[in-house]
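So, who can interpret the following?
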Amino acid sequence: MRLVFAGTPITAVPSLDALVDDGHEIVAVLTRDDAKVGRSRALTPSPVAARAHELGLHVIKSNRMTPEVTAELTALGAELGVIVAYGALIDAATLTAPSLGWVNLHFSLLPDLRGAAPAQRAVMRGDTTTGMTIFQLTAGLDEGPVFAVQRSPIAEDETAGELLERLAGEGAEFLAETVRAIGSGTLSAEPQTGEATFAPKLGKHDSAIDWAAPLDVVDAHIRGVTPEPGAVAQVDGQPLRILRVARPGGKTDAPALSPGQLCAVGREVFVGTGTSPLQLLSVQPAGKKPMPARDWLRGRRDAATLVLA
């Protein structure tokens, strides 16, 4: 089929590759404008834009659907638009640009977790199962009828970043199969059923850790905001990025600790929560590189009395 592909982050790249490998004609790739990245703040193309250029595809960059973008998309004569994490709304005028409309690969089991951060919110919520939904895009937020659903487990120690990377790979073939079926006319969409929940975009306020919450809640929250916006504790008014934690499991040497209190036992570091302690594996102090938590704590003179806020 003649397709328009819309996507921006690295998680959308496997889907673009899969559609190209499947023999579809990608008449254009729609992605967000170049953004300032890194300490140099140099304007950098999105991962999707970079990959599309490598593939020799026509790229349209825009953070919103202007009349000019809509007119260009309409003139391409695409049969179907395919979206994977584009990061902007497709307005009503653009919805009809491809003759068959747009389909969206969404990383949740709709109508659960509609919105910008479904994988992150699933991990933060402590879910053990999530999945992907391919649905027909409509004017409402992730409300369109569903073509296909695929479930996927969430591992106990999986971060949101790891989950997204895995779903991106699994979703690429899932999307290719579904687009193939839509093109052949063998697949129809069914209305969503069940209670809708929402997954708003994460912000810096989500970085804060409530050490007084139960261990399961603290663990899920840290994994859900990793790598972005990141889990951040406060030490003497300075941020300490919490990169990796683990549940002690059957360990019998985990000490009893108050929320945020730290303790080293041999080569292991524990931090207190509202219930039982959590093992602290790696951290990143302000202005320094990531390091094992034991090395960071060993280097502090106040290690015996230190409490994370």
About this structure: The chain has two domains: 2-184, 204-305. The mean pLDDT is 95. Residues 160-184 form the longest helix (25 residues).
